């Protein structure tokens, strides 16, 4: 952590990230609760999550190619400003009593599109903020801060929503993102790291090149496919918390915030451990085994109606998801060709946003017909099969991602 925060640039960057992500988690809690209040339908809550996350399925590959050919600092600034303005619009509509579920879907679609550009722009900047030797620690620190915010945001959102309604909680996100925008010009990033490479062809051609690069890579391809499968099958629970809180546990907004904070506590502890490791050796095994642990914890969460056990399972889900996500990011940052890094990280962003969105939509629809518990347990069973597939291939993935770069490239050619 000391290495990751050693420079002025890093301290500004991560402080702005903490502010923005704290606001983001307040926004997510408030918007999910707002959708539940407006409709009382798990399907509509799933649709709101889908509109926030799904643009990544279309936009992220393009955003990654854009991040590899434009000024990344400027791209991050503009996209974060759009997110802040979207939150301000949602808060204003709620405060004036004119919000409708259709407006909420449209605005979340807008915010999700902007977030798809912000993610690769910000993550590719990290290589210009810390040295290559400290990049694994910086990736862990980045995820750690995200999960600190995941704890603080809900802890603030619960009392705010219970006492004053959802509008002030969403307005906090607008203030947080706009304050992050103000700090971006303070960063002094090496010009070589601000821009990936000059445009060498059409934008869509570079998008296809990014997909082809990942698909051919003997480590990144199967690892990202593993992550995508688990994202669809297991992550939807976190996107549909309001129905789970009310139906499984019979509780309200403050308990929703408490469960979300428990996700953050577990993720925070796991992130601290990975930040202390500060290396990528063994990250492949951690990423794959964490999928197994996440499936087991998810089964425990949906099978119980006892709130204290639900809180424990939520913390375990947060911890295992953090172990998986940070490890995949560390491997992607260090193994990807620098000219491809933006596109690889954009694909990772697509996985973390689009796959949970698809899962939330499917689970929300199934929940209307069968309840939430049994469809989730079916997803867990399929997740265990995905783990078996990933574990059978983990040695090859490990050799490709954790060996010297020359060794990884040679193995890719042989395959």
UniProtKB/TrEMBL annotation:
Task: State the organism of origin.
Answer: Teichococcus rhizosphaerae
Bilayer topology: Multi-pass membrane protein
Report the InterPro entries cross-referenced here. Answer: MFS_trans_sf, TM_effector
GO cellular component, as recorded: plasma membrane
Task: Tell whether Endoplasmic reticulum is among the UniProt keywords.
Answer: no
The reply on keyword Transmembrane is: yes
Q: What is this protein called?
A: MFS transporter
* Pfam families to which the protein is assigned, alphabetical: MFS_3
Can you tell me where the transmembrane regions are? Answer: 12-36, 42-63, 75-95, 164-187, 218-236, 256-274, 286-303, 309-332, 344-366, 372-392
Superkingdom of this protein's organism? Bacteria
Q: Which controlled-vocabulary keywords does the entry list?
A: Cell membrane, Membrane, Transmembrane, Transmembrane helix, Transport
Q: Where in the cell is it found?
A: Cell membrane
């Amino acid at each position: 952590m000391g290495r990751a925060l050693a420079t002025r640039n890093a301290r500004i960057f991560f402080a702005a990230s903490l502010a923005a992500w704290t606001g983001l988690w307040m926004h997510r809690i408030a918007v999910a609760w707002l959708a539940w209040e407006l409709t009382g339908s798990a399907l509509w809550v799933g649709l709101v999550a889908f509109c926030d996350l799904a643009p990544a399925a279309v936009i992220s590959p393009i955003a990654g190619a854009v991040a590899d050919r434009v000024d990344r600092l400027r791209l991050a600034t503009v996209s974060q400003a759009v997110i802040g303005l979207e939150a301000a619009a949602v808060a204003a509509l709620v405060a004036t009593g004119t919000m409708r579920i259709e407006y909420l879907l449209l605005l979340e679609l807008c915010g999700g599109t902007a977030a798809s550009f912000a993610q690769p722009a910000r993550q590719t900047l990290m290589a210009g903020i810390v040295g290559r030797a400290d990049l694994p620690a910086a990736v862990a620190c980045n995820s750690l801060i995200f999960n600190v915010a995941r704890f603080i945001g809900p802890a603030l959102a619960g009392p705010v929503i219970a006492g004053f309604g959802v509008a002030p909680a969403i307005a906090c996100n607008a203030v947080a993102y706009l304050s992050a925008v103000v700090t971006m010009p303070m960063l002094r990033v090496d010009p070589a790291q601000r821009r990936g490479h000059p445009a060498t062809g059409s934008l869509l051609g570079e998008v296809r090149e990014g997909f082809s690069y990942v698909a051919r890579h003997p480590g990144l391809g199967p690892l990202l496919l593993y992550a995508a499968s688990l994202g669809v099958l297991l992550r939807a629970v976190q996107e549909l918390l309001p129905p789970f809180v009310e139906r499984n546990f019979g509780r309200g907004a403050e308990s929703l915030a408490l469960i979300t904070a428990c996700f953050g506590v577990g993720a925070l502890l796991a992130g601290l451990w990975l930040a202390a490791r500060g290396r990528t050796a063994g990250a492949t095994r951690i990423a794959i085994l964490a999928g197994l642990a996440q499936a087991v914890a998810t089964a425990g969460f949906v099978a119980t109606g006892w709130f204290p056990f639900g809180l424990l399972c939520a913390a375990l889900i947060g911890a295992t998801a953090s172990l998986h996500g940070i490890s995949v990011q560390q491997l992607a940052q260090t193994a990807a060709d620098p000219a491809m890094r933006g596109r690889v990280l954009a694909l990772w962003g697509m996985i973390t946003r689009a796959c949970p969105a698809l899962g939330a939509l499917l689970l929300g629809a199934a929940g209307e017909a069968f309840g939430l518990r049994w469809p989730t347990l079916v997803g867990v069973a399929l997740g265990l099969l995905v783990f078996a597939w990933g574990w059978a291939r983990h040695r090859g993935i490990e050799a490709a991602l954790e060996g010297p770069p020359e060794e990884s490239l040679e193995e890719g050619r042989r395959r």
